[in-house]
Amino acid sequence: MVRKLAGREVNALYAGHMTSPQIALLALAIGLAIGIGLAMLVFWAYRARAKVAEESSAVVPQGAVDVLDSMDDAACVVDPSGLVLAISHAAARFGIEVGATLDVPELRELVRAVRSSGASTTETMRITRPGVSLDPRLVSARASALGARLTLLIVRDVTEQERLDQVRRDFVANTSHELKTPVGAVSLLAEAIESAADDPAQVRIFAARISAEAARLGQLTGRIMSLSRLQAADGITDFGPVAMDEVVTASIEAHAVQADSAGVELIRGGDRGAFVRGDAQILIEAVGNLIANAIVYSPRGSRVGVGVKIEGETLEVAVSDQGIGISESDRERIFERFYRADEARSRRTGGTGLGLSIVKHATQRHGGEVRVWSRPSRGSTFTIVLPRIEAPAPETTDRKNKKKRARKTAKAAAARARNGETV
């Protein structure tokens, strides 16, 4: 009885110190804390479950698939086992297919290294495409982690860029070497003239040799400029109908004196009235180079024939000689810059080694090709094959000529205006 009375007194005492609003606020605070804790616990659970699902998922994100579809380079997404899950359109060139493993050992090693380190890696390597063992390609490969399980691999083929860089370096080196010869000869001959100033006969001899070296230097630089223009992306833009009769006639007339001096007869034959689309001056230079080579390598008293043949949609211009011919090993390289099948003869006749290279590039820029047939001691035949067009109507040709004259007049007027002259 005493204890019950004491408990009631204590409860009454506490009740007297806390009001009802305070008790309500305390309960609200405790409930809010419990709610926040439960919410955070649920959020963390969902977050952990999503992370586990991401780490264990092998599904390629849709965004990655869209990026692969728009890429020009070869690219793919692989899983930890090396299985290809998605590819770009260009990946097939390297034998990369969806559902197959990555067959190229170098690329597999790159993917493995990225998975181990977790950092993106770029390497330049030379790889062999599956099934094409004789065609190694230089590529720049980049691998990046795409989530916890997937790896994105991008392969860019830089073989053609490497080849062009090598061609450019060779061209510069060969040009420098070829220019040194006539420039050095002119310098030495000038010193010889100075030392032989009291001997008029020697001065005349040295002066004639200087003129010959200067002509050779001018021919070399001119052909280098022609070749550079042919190789430039915007080197030829004004194509129009060209009569091959005029091209052949102009080429033969330009080398008539050379043929007479060498005792070689020029003969023309074949079809007439054929037209192609192109640049007449470039075609004249190309056919002229073939005629000049045929004359140089033909013996005195022989013939050089120039013929035109219409073959359906194409046109063939053949230049044949009865000269020394070309060996099979040299036929593989005669269209290279500065290459000479007969080095001593080319030097003696002033050849630059650029004539056939100009023929090849001029023909390619006109959508055609150049072929060669040759047998040692029996002669050679070079054939330019070009797409043929129908003969244009006379009024069309006149209209094009008027447009060309108008463009030339406009260019000349603009040049005078830039120089401050009165237009």
Automatic annotation (TrEMBL):
EC number, as in UniProt: 2.7.13.3
CDD domains, sorted: HATPase, HisKA
Residues annotated as transmembrane: 23-46
Region (Disordered): 389-423
Enzyme class per UniProt: transferase
Domain Histidine kinase: 174-390
Protein name: Sensor-like histidine kinase SenX3
Organism listed in the record: Microbacterium murale
